[in-house]
Design brief:
There is one protein chain. This protein has about 350 residues and is of the alpha/beta class. The chain has one domain (about 55-360). Helices cover about 30% and strands about 10% of the residues. The protein has helices spanning about 1-30, 115-125, 155-185, 195-210, 260-265, 345-360; strands spanning about 60-65, 90-95, 135-140, 190-195, 220-225, 250, 255, 285, 295, 300-305, 310, 315-320. It has a six-stranded mixed β-sheet with strand order 1-3-2-4-5-6, sandwiched between helices. Strand 11 and strand 12 form a beta hairpin. Helix 3 packs across helix 4 (about 195-210). It is globular, with a radius of gyration of 21 Å.
């Protein structure tokens, strides 16, 4: 009995030491405070220095907890039960919004362009980043994103220019994340979320800052959507297999039932594919009756049963989305709606994983 008592005493003493160590660590982190005044309407009056973003300036954040922005928006049906959590941070990397055919600014976007910033804020930040606003504080940097054509180079010269464009874009995202860690994180757990080009860069963030790094222990989960995610790309961060698993990656690319794009067929590597309705690797197929709601063109209209989900090899299949007017929707590529078809399911799942993280 004395030996058991001694063992328990040592155990609880170690837990107490660990607890106070964490408190000391958190207290030692210097955290930025909100500015006394921020002119929200000036969000598009951005002035760069030699074209580079300054992430100490809130104008260079499309979403930030120290200002009101579209990521704070809540679909009307969800407002009654809305209760925000500020103990977790979401770092969201937005997809490509620099898509104009004329490629006015060359291979990378101009952060001083008001029209492009407005397009970013009232498309992806409103419709995608808002998914996470109940789960935690949302940070989404503006960055010199590569033009959409960088994904479809037509020559060797274009390929080289595209690689440089993606590298420049990633360096902005990396700089923003480093600034976030140094000034805003304050020891909070982190959710990484992204779509399309944002996922191209978020993958690298996971590799450089989390995989085989101490920060891995702060990762609640990563939602890296709209791009291939190789199962062996990371060595210590696996694909999520269950709805409440933490420290893992969720990924999917959505197409109409029966359709496999040519580029996917030509891929010589596999991909992590998560079912965004079941979140369970043992249940790869589920009917749309299990979809509690998506958000499509009308932000304040939640559409239940809008889409089903079936994991097929390297991609996710769904039947034609069910919404009023879908007779005019003929696309087989649901990429633009990868997250919106499963808006409420993602919203609930990230809260489930956060709860599991705190229990651990």
């Amino acid at each position: 009995m004395k030996q058991i008592a001694s063992t328990l005493s040592n155990y609880y003493m170690k837990q107490l030491v660990n607890y106070f160590s964490i408190l000391i660590l958190l207290a030692s982190v210097s955290c930025a405070k909100p500015p006394q005044k921020f002119e929200g309407l000036a969000a598009y009056q951005i002035k760069t220095v030699n074209g580079k973003p300054n992430y100490a300036d809130l104008h260079f954040w499309a979403a930030h907890p120290f200002k009101h922005d579209p990521s704070d928006s809540i679909p009307e049906p969800l407002r009654k039960n809305y209760k925000a959590d500020s103990t977790v941070d979401i770092f969201f990397v937005h997809p490509t919004t620099y898509t104009a055919n004329e490629k006015s600014f060359g291979w990378n976007a101009n952060l001083e362009d008001a029209a492009l910033n407005g397009k970013t804020d009232y498309s992806t930040i409103l419709y995608q980043a808002s998914i996470f606003n109940q789960a935690g504080r949302v940070f989404a940097p503006r960055y010199r994103q590569a033009h959409l054509s960088a994904y479809f180079p037509k020559s060797l010269e274009d390929s080289l220019e595209a690689l440089k464009a993606f590298e420049l874009a990633y360096q902005d995202v990396k700089t923003a994340f480093e600034f976030y860690l140094a000034n805003y994180n304050c020891g909070r757990p982190i959710v990484i979320a992204s779509h399309s080009q944002g996922s191209t860069h978020a993958k690298r963030l996971l590799k450089e800052f989390f995989d085989n790094k101490p920060l891995k222990n702060k990762l609640v989960a990563a939602y890296i959507v709209g791009m291939i995610f190789e199962p062996n790309y990371l060595t210590e961060i696996p694909g999520c297999k269950t709805p409440n698993q933490t420290g893992c990656v969720c990924a999917w690319r959505t197409y109409k039932n029966g359709f496999i794009p040519a580029f996917v067929e030509n891929e010589q590597i596999h991909s992590i594919v998560t079912n965004p309705l079941t979140w369970d690797a043992t249940i790869p197929q589920v009917d749309r009756d299990f979809n509690t709601g998506g958000i499509l063109l009308k932000f304040n209209k939640l559409i239940p049963r809008v889409a089903d989900a079936t994991v097929i090899d390297k991609i996710l299949w769904s039947g034609k989305p069910h919404f009023f007017g879908n007779i005019f929707y003929t696309s087989k590529n649901f990429h633009i709606a990868d997250m919106n078809l499963y808006y409420l399911s993602i919203r609930k799942n990230v809260e489930t994983r956060i709860g599991a993280y705190w229990k651990k």
